[in-house]
Amino acid sequence: MPLLQSQSYVFDPRPHSPLLVSVKRYWVPGFESTDADAVTLILAHATSFHKEHWEPVLEDLYDRVATPSSPASKIRDAWAIDCPNHGESAILNEETLVDGYTPIFSWEEYARAIHLVLNGFGKGIDVDFRSRNLVGIGHSMGSTAIILTRTMYPYVSWSSAILVEPMFVHPDHFRGANKFLAQGAVKRRDVWSGREEAHQLFRERSFKSWDPRLIDLYVKYGLRDLPTLAHPDKTQGVTLNCTKVQEAATYGENHGRLKSQRFLPTFCKDVPTHVVFGAIADINPAENREFVKEVAGGGFLTTSFVENAGHLAVQHNPKGVAKDIGNILQRTPVVPSKL
């Protein structure tokens, strides 16, 4: 298996936005294609998770394509971006998030963070993404964020987009689903005696259906040592990077999702777009998937299904997600999006 390398960055977009952004670049030495048609992958995660949850997918993707004879081997690098109130970004923005980002945290803030990074509106990353062939890959909330970047100016010129389990729901069902998920976030446990206890409980209960690599990554990058601003009186143990309050605020969001849903047909006309569902219709039921395709107006170039996976396809079967992404990259020509 090719050895995946990474480098971490903190992007500071102030004064364009008060929220700092944690970003990580991934590459495999010897397979950093600089051909004119090589692609740069931009990865956006789902609610409750963080950018490192894409690492197993990238490992399995490079394992498939990082050979000289592979027609899909022209990947320059990959960049995963944290939502400003998730992962390491949540720690960077701990004090800023207290005012103005509850009880609702707009998914447009995630889109704005991606937009600012890719347009270079800030400091901390010395890369001209505007000269790259960008492939946007989003999971659930991350799909919405990728779409919403095209509602901001100057436009992000996506060469293509891959939406993994996009959460587009009929407007009549939005509020009920939001309330259920937000209440679950508020009620969840958020303090453990240490990473060892958390890992054991996640493995045996909460995340037992996950690929083991994802549990390891959640413990490593999704938890932080106490005390924190949310738990100033607790000095021992660990808690969530994305606090329960911020997680509930993110689940409670309606506007960004509806806006991206209405904008989806336009996005698909401008950007070659593929959709990937988990084969198991759990959180995202079959009728909702048909609604997603209906909303897109026939704009998806391909629709594929990841075996043995539901809405959390990235967590359930990263190898299957990597397989579908690899197939899409192999058969999709690199063309600039319409401005």
Q: Can you offer a commentary on this structure?
A:
The chain is α/β, with parallel strands linked by helices and 339 residues long. It has one domain: Rossmann fold (3-Layer(aba) Sandwich). The chain has an 8-stranded mixed β-sheet. A 3-stranded antiparallel β-sheet has the order 7-9-8. The mean pLDDT is 92. Keywords: Hydrolase. It holds the Pfam family Abhydrolase_6. It comes from Multifurca ochricompacta. One of its GO terms (molecular function) is hydrolase activity.
Strand-helix topology:
Elements: E1 5-11, E2 21-27, E3 39-44, H1 55-65, E4 75-81, H2 87-92, H3 107-119, E5 133-139, H4 141-148, E6 158-164, H5 171-187, E7 191-192, H6 195-206, H7 212-221, E8 223-225, E9 238-240, H8 244-251, H9 255-270, E10 273-278, H10 286-295, E11 300-306, H11 313-316, H12 318-331
Parallel strand pairs: 3-4, 3-5, 5-6, 6-10, 10-11
Antiparallel strand pairs: 1-2, 2-4, 7-9, 8-9
Helix pairs in contact: 1-12, 3-4, 4-9, 5-8, 6-7
Q: Could you name the CATH class?
A: Alpha Beta
Please name the CATH architecture.
Answer: 3-Layer(aba) Sandwich
What is the count of distinct domains?
1
Q: Assign the CATH superfamily.
A: Alpha/Beta hydrolase fold, catalytic domain
* Tally of separate helices: 12
What characteristic shape results from the CA principal axes?
globular
What share of the residues does DSSP label as strand, in percent?
Answer: 15-25%
Radius of gyration: 19 Å
* Structure summary, number of beta strands: 11
The major pleated sheet works out as: 8 strands, mixed
Mean pLDDT: 92
What is the CATH topology assignment? Rossmann fold
The assigned structural class equals alpha/beta
N-to-C terminal Cα separation, in Å? 38 Å
Helix content: 25-40%
The helix/strand series, from N terminus to C terminus, equals EEEHEHHEHEHEHHEEHHEHEHH
Q: What is the strand arrangement across the widest sheet?
A: 1-2-4-3-5-6-10-11
Poorly predicted segments: none
